[in-house]
User: Fold this.
Amino acid sequence: MSQNHDNKVTNEAHEQQVVNAARRRFLGQTAAATAVIAPGITLMTIAHADSKSAEGASSSRRWGLLIDVNRCEKGCSDCVSACQQENGWGTGSTDEGLSSSRQKAQWIRTVTVHDKQTGFTNQLPMMCQHCEQPPCVDVCPTGASMKRADGIVLVDKHICIGCRYCMMACPYKARSFVHEPLHDQKSHAPRGKGTVESCTMCVHRVDRGEQPACVVSCTQGAMFFGDLNDPASDISIKLAAVSSTQIRADLGTNPGVRYSGI
Assistant:
């Protein structure tokens, strides 16, 4: 019995040595592979970069927009055109030539507001309002509709099942559905049949320290972008100086997009 026990211990020790040797070989091969990824780049460097990117979506910030409707010229659609070009939807994309009229995307659109008492009319851009309490996120059964820590509301196309509950829940009609296959999508703005899409606040640009395409394209200076949590940011200073409102503020969603002049 004692001899059998000793043999079992010896075998287990040998097996552990084999496993340890295999691990060392794997780690050695991995280390060697890092040298050929690119000059000066290792796996640890890439992991660190990913970590820094994740830190960029911090709850210490809340990205938002202020739109001065008084500066929006009637008939101007520069912000819409810039969004289409930047994110690959609308004019110039395959969804414009497809048979289904329902295919039309609306990441951003212009709407006309009318005061029935005075007759005053004005135009303003409407997009996802990036709510603090987004109804689209509340009703999504898979978690595809989500809000980043910095307030940007997005759709994870990998887990969107196309139920469109979020479209029904959105009080701003800011989302659209892809009914047919697309072939000219942008790498930074993937679009796919059977999924819901909406304004991303150009998150790929924001994460690079840039401003959304609609803001950059606005020649009238009607759009302001920045960190709503930073009292020293341009948008916060502007908000402190002008009267502004949130569309459907009565719903308690606390949109990250504010308007002045309405």
Observations:
- The mean pLDDT is 82.
- The two ends are 91 Å apart (CA to CA).
- The chain has eight helices and nine strands.
- Residues 114 and 121 are 4 Å apart (CA to CA).
